[in-house]
Amino acid sequence: MNHPDSTDKKIIPIVSQEVTSSDADDAEMVSLYQAHKKVYPRSVSGLFARWRWGMVFLTQLVFYGLPWLEWGQRQAVLFDLEARRFYIFGLVLYPQDFIYLTGLLVISALSLFLFTAVAGRQWCGYACPQTVYTEIFLWIERKIEGDRSARMRLDSAPMSVRKFSIKGAKQIAWISVALWTGFTFVGYFSPIHELGRSFLHATLGPWEIFWVFFYGFATYGFAGYMREQVCKYMCPYARFQSAMFDKDTLIVSYDERRGEPRGARSRKADPQALGLGSCIDCTLCVQVCPTGIDIRKGLQYECISCAACIDVCDDVMDKMNYPRGLIKYTTQNSVQLGWTRSQTLRHVLRPRVLIYTSILLAVSLAMLISLATRTPLKVDVVRDRGVMARIVSGGMIENVYRLQVMNATETAQQYKITVSGLPGLQLAADQDPLVAVNATEARWVVVRAQLPYEAAAPGSHPIHFEIAAQDAPAHVSEKSVFLVPR
């Protein structure tokens, strides 16, 4: 295919490795890949900037502070993988409670669908960990290197003692935040007080060291360097968000009818007399964008709805004595049909939103009821495969079982074990029916069930083990089988 500007030149991709000498004179090199340009977002102030920083403080207060809270004599939130117990304030969960994790994931997915259908990607702009840590690392960068123009000058300047010291100070601050973040993350899986003592005495285990540095390195790389590239190229949410958007979803929009044609002018100039719209083409909306897009080109998948462009545009409109709202949160229908704010908000309650809300409320209510009525006792019954059904003294048929009794309360408990399902079925006479289990512990117990000879036909018979707490309203019935030999 010929170049549109010349019929003689050949287009040879830059990735090609074979170019003959006859082609070298008239070949034009065309890059197949766009070079990445570093984004230098300008600092911005305003209503939505304050909301973003409010979410930064709230999310990090929870993340960094929660592991240090205590509940009784233990850490309030701890996912003890080694002991296979998960503590969430007053709840003690076991791997058998996996259904609650499933319910939590379903609730999270439905919440994301609902929030996206109503307000677009505002989760990304305000509460996503990538956005939150990018804001923190950018704040550190601004404090040490300066605002946008100063950072650009510093990066383009040759290496010097001043540049090395400034860059070094920033790196130390970034690494400190990243390592503290990794340490806190590990503190959710290993008691953080013990983790802190081990760190001070340099006795951290190999896995703890690995995960502190792994999570710290991920935070350092994603928030310090990759930034908007994570949102644009790695995050799957940006790809399937269009399936959850419709024309009544709130998005950051530029009012093209009001803003165009754009152009520079003085504050005192009459834009109508000049044939111009409200946009003065200052490009500040582009300079503050953390993903480096131009919102004036319409909705783009890179937009994370952080509203930085709204804040800076409103500030420019104030200085020009123009009405605010050239860039604003609105819907496509509102822009096309000229709806008022109240009309736009009334269209939020549409069928999709009502369906998401109903399902979310139903699942959340079911999960809360299940947690509230949950029995703080778990029992697993396993037939002892090493001991088959046998005849013992007294003419009794005996089956041996192993019961795992898990106490999900914060106090030691005693449990009484009984067995039923066949006439005359009982525990062995020398078997103690009471089992003591410490708080939040699990214990394996060997249980021998006996049945009078010829009380049941040969074969497999269903039975039930009843386990009841003596000092708490906890009762569990578990099925098993009793084998009668031929």
What is the fold's blueprint, element by element?
Blueprint: E1 10-13, H1 21-24, E2 27-30, H2 47-65, E3 70-71, E4 74-75, E5 77-80, E6 85-88, E7 91-93, H3 98-119, H4 122-126, H5 129-145, H6 148-156, H7 161-186, H8 192-200, H9 206-226, H10 228-234, H11 237-240, E8 251-254, H12 256-259, H13 271-274, H14 284-287, H15 308-319, E9 327-330, H16 332-337, H17 341-346, H18 351-372, E10 377-383, E11 390-392, E12 396-407, E13 413-420, E14 426-427, E15 434-437, E16 442-452, E17 459-469, E18 475-484
Parallel strand pairs: 1-2
Antiparallel strand pairs: 3-4, 5-6, 6-7, 8-9, 10-12, 11-12, 12-16, 13-15, 13-17, 14-16, 17-18
Would you give an account of this structure?
The chain folds into three domains: 35 residues, no CATH class; 338 residues, no CATH class; 108 residues, Sandwich (Immunoglobulin-like), CATH 2.60.40.10. The radius of gyration is 33 Å and the shape is elongated. The strands form six sheets. Strands 10, 11, 12, 14 and 16 form a five-stranded antiparallel beta sheet that branches. A four-stranded antiparallel beta sheet has the order 15-13-17-18, with no helix packed on it. Strands 5-6-7 form a three-stranded antiparallel beta sheet, with no helix packed on it. The protein is of the alpha+beta class. The termini are far apart. The longest helix is centred in the middle third of the chain and has 26 residues. Strand 6 and strand 7 form a beta hairpin. Helix 3 packs antiparallel against helix 18, helix 5 runs antiparallel to helix 7 and helix 5 crosses helix 9. It contains 18 helices and 18 strands.
